[in-house]
Design a protein that fits this description.
Helix content is about 65%, strand content about 0%. By secondary structure, the chain is mainly alpha-helical. The protein starts with a helix and ends with a helix.
Length: about 190
């Protein structure tokens, strides 16, 4: 398989409904003969590995060895879901780095582009949320809640999502989604 086909396979592999022993063997092959592109596509599947310790250590190593300019959020997200405290030492340096980068907002204000602008809102809130899932620490919760009243709706949404709460922004988006879905259901031609 070429790289694109391997990535497609890994992406589809992680959403399997039923996990078998054979799937664990396939996952082992990917873990041994993959790269960050492949592993990132199937990071969630690591939680299905029969040896949870091996999976967690593998993900921690991926976080520690990341050479990307971007934080390895997929790995951190899965480690947050796993809730293994060993992951904190690998994730915390990213939290510290991005927490410092968030301070720029006090000087420059909210940038027009919160997705790709100079302030890493999404990365910071995701990382803080992962650490909160692992430790349940008030430090991370408060760092996230600070953004519940942010002037930008997207930042508020990311903050609510990081803590897994349906705050006003998420509730409004869900209601809007349902309204649009209902409208499209009533306006689509019958088949």
């Amino acid at each position: 398989m070429n790289e694109r086909e391997r990535m497609d396979f890994a992406s589809n592999f992680q959403v399997k409904d039923v996990w078998t022993e054979n799937d664990t063997e396939i996952l082992e092959v990917m873990m041994n003969d993959g790269n960050d592109h492949i592993w990132s596509c199937c990071a969630l599947a690591m939680l299905n590995h029969r040896d949870r310790n091996r999976a967690v250590e593998f993900l921690i190593e991926r976080v520690q060895r990341s050479e990307s300019d971007h934080p390895p959020l997929n790995y951190m997200q899965v480690l947050g879901i796993a809730g293994d405290r060993r992951a904190v030492a690998a994730i915390r340096p990213y939290y510290d780095k991005y927490s410092k980068a968030m301070e720029v907002e006090a000087v420059t204000g909210v940038p027009p582009d919160v997705f790709f602008g100079p302030i890493p809102y999404h990365a910071f809130l995701s990382i803080a949320g992962d650490l909160f899932k692992i430790e349940g620490s008030e430090e991370y919760e408060q760092a996230i809640r600070k953004y519940f009243d942010h002037p930008n709706e997207q930042v508020r949404y990311w903050a609510e999502h990081a803590l897994g709460v349906e705050g006003p922004t998420t509730a409004n988006r869900n209601a809007e989604y349902q309204r649009k879905r209902s409208n499209s259901d009533t306006t689509s031609p019958e088949r």
